[in-house]
Amino acid sequence: MNQDSNSAVYFQCQLCGECCSSWNIPIEAEKAEALLQKSWVQQRLRDTGRHLQRQSADMYRIPLTDENVCVFLGADRRCLVEVNEGLTLKPHECQRFPFATVKAPDGNTIHDTSAACKSVSEKLLLAFQPIQPRPKVPETISPAVSFLPEAMSEIRPEEWLADVQTVPDRVWQTLFRQTDWETLQKLRAGWKDWFQADVGSAEEALCRVRASLTKAGKTPPAQFKASTWRQQALVLYFLRKPYQSFSLFELLHGRTYNDPRVFGEPLPLRDMNKVRWSPEGEALLKAFAYNLLNRNRLLAVGGSVQSLVAMAGVAVGLVRWYAKALAVLQNAEATTQADVSTAIRLVERYYTGHQPRFFQFFQSRFRGWLVLRWLYLF
Ligand code: SF4
Question: How many structural domains does the chain have?
Answer without folding.
Answer: 2
